[in-house]
Amino acid sequence: MKTSSLSFEISKLVEN
Description:
Layout: H1 2-15
Keywords: Chloroplast, Plastid
Protein name: ATP synthase beta chain
Organism: Alsophila loheri
């Protein structure tokens, strides 16, 4: 799902 990809990308940004 695209939402999953978005969440994953946002997760990386939040971790940084």
